[in-house]
Amino acid sequence: MKAIVRLTQRLAAEIRADLERPHPFAAERIGFLFGRWAFAAGHMMVYPISYLPVADDNYIEAPFVGATINSAAIRAALQATLDDKAACLHVHLHPSQLPRFSDLDLREQDRLIPSFCATNREAPHGALMLWGDAGGAARLWPPRGGPPLMAGRVAFVGYPTVLAGVGQ
Amino acid sequence: MSERFSRQSFLGPDAEEIIQGALIGVAGLGGGGSHIVQQTAHIGFRRFVLYDGDVVEDSNLNRLVGATVEDARRETPKLQVAKRTILGQDSSAEIDGHQTRWQDAPEPLRLCDLVFGCVDSFSERDQLEKACRRHLIPLLDIGLGVTVIEGQAPVMGGQIILSMPGGPCMRCLGFITDKRLAEEASRYGDAGPRPQVIWANGILASTAVGFAVDLLTDWTRRLRSVVYLEYRGNEGVLRPHPRLADRGIPDTCPHYPPSDLGDPMFRPL
Description:
CATH topology of chain A: Cytidine Deaminase, domain 2
Low-confidence stretches of chain A: none
CATH topology of chain B: Rossmann fold
Largest sheet of chain B: 8 strands, mixed
CATH architecture of chain A: 3-Layer(aba) Sandwich
Number of strands of chain B: 8
Strand content of chain A: 35-45%
Radius of gyration of chain B: 19 Å
CATH class of chain B: Alpha Beta
Distance between the termini of chain A: 10 Å
Strand content of chain B: 15-25%
Oligomer: heterodimer
Structural class of chain B: alpha/beta
Mean pLDDT of chain A: 93
Helix content of chain B: 25-40%
């Protein structure tokens, strides 16, 4: 199984605009994406459609990490996943760091994403990281169990169409 | 930038990597698709999903790039001609070839980063656009037609459309209409030979390839909205379609809502 994430440049711009806003104390912002999914030729594909920012009040002051969010933020994302029968991606921004998830990112994803997998078992879920002006990386959990895998392609579809990742 | 692609280094420092990494689909490997395959292979694209169920016939030789008299004699599949063309440029190119219509093996198409539509009919265009929209894939459609009316000079025309998910579709642009689809369906089986010529196919295909490269590399930094060009072959003119000036074209497509993305699913009424 391989993985692809595609989203429109329009949606990516909306996400970036939100995540780039400074927060009173959190070093970075977090959001959640909801969308549809498909399976084809040994690949799972996730197509995010809508974005849910985490409200300012739902960040927790925590030393040593960029951002920590409270249960209300997570509950809202889980509820949206359930209501929309959606695939959900946790999303954050690495403006200038290396274009990959940090060890802390991976550890926190391992704790968080299984809750989404349990909420909608039919869909893949995971995490998307945007970096720089245009790049991105994603990690997806297949539905009904199985280890997460890095998406070989994250495509930002629009003018221009930006292809991140190493292809499939 | 390698020496081989040094003459196209103006495309940007990452262009070679972008082009080599992109997976492009070509639906139809005839008069238009054969040009697309040849040019994309020269540019450095090396990952392809190809579709065509037909074999080379004598009547194809006036326009099928790469095909020979021997191919017509042997009834070589057009897919084999396309593969030969690509592998002649890059022997390690990755080709997922299907000697069938794309509709009969649609899954590999869904993996593509960009699709070229080189199909013959409105209904096939409509189906291909539906598939690409459902999977958020930009579609570059090209088409050529020659209308022959007795007593008048034949009229050659064509189009290039970049159908970008989220933006105006071929229905929004007035290119695909229910009326056209119905007229086409009523003529089913009565199409006769479709007049096609290599120079016009070449103009349309070359221009489409140019848009594809620009879309992926952003080398002009100008491609920011829908592409709909009309080709007026009798005059040798390729220009923005007059319908683009129509204020009725929506920015956001109402025909393919985001809720229709992905695999179909049941929804409560």
